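This part of the workshop introduces the protein records we will be handling. The structure tokens are whole numbers drawn from a learned vocabulary of backbone shapes. The record below serves as our worked example for the rest of this section.

===
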Amino acid sequence: MQVAIVGAGNFGTAIANIVARNGCPTHLWMRDPLQLADIRRHGENRRYLKGRALDGNVTPTCDMALAVGGADLIFVTVPSASFRAVTADLAAHAQHGAFAISGTKGIEEQGFQLMSQILTELLPRCATGVISGPNLAEEIADGHHAGTVVASASDALREAVSRALSSPTFRVYASEDVFGVELGGALKNIYAIVCGLAAALEVGQNTMGMLLTRSLAEMSRFAVSLGANPFTFLGLAGVGDLIVTCTSPLSRNYQVGYRVGRGATLVEAMDALGKLAEGVNTLRVIRAKSTALGVYMPLVEGLHRVLHEGDDIGAVVGDLMTSGQMLDVEFAKPSTWSDG
């Protein structure tokens, strides 16, 4: 099985190493010739995963035709802002019947398109799917135990991804709920910014517990309004990814929130990070969509006020404490309960 990883960021590089170590000839595509030259010179992706050697079975390249032309399995791991353009480029070279999988946790603002929908639109002769979970690339690259979820309507795709990615330290679980898995991965980035803000202000562990659980309720409420299965959010792609991203200093989105909480502007926080934090763009997209759908998302609304309207996290927590929401777990509500 030949594999292409389209996008040589930290996650793409980490999974390229896993696949290559499983014996699959692997091409790692990147846009920047300078990055390619540096990788070839030093044997590692110093821009994104410094100090972790690239497996000898990985061929780095800027040639899209070479990367995906013979690939049976194509992982697309570029940022959401460039996902459509890159997928359109690879579509000209991908073989019919290849499996295409998104590893990008974001949403395209134009038309509210998920990455899996873009793959399906531009690669109509390929089965498509997504992978998502608590997958901090640095920990995966260092061999710490981790798991991910592959979601697709195709049994064959799920089985192929499992074969390619499973290792003694990386476990692959399966799901048919593509939207639920994908929305979990995109939405949790918003709440990681919230928790980074809260941590910077030392709000206390009780407050953090409330923020995490209300984040989970908010995520699932929104996703279910679009047809996702609420139980998906009890697994790795939901609560598992949420907890990791909202508590780890390795999370880019957490770092952005933390820096803003320490007094930086949003622009300053993003510049200091030097890498894309998908949650900043996702926040704007989800706020607009939730308003249009009439879905109650007080943390999304509150974070938007903090980042773009000058409010502080204390005001957001205060609104949460006085909101009209009474149910703790709304999807488990027995029919005999009342809302009072």
About this structure: The mean pLDDT is 91. The chain has 15 helices and ten strands. The chain has two domains: 3-176, 179-332. Residues 179-332 form a domain with the N-(1-d-carboxylethyl)-l-norvaline Dehydrogenase; domain 2 fold (CATH 1.10.1040.10).
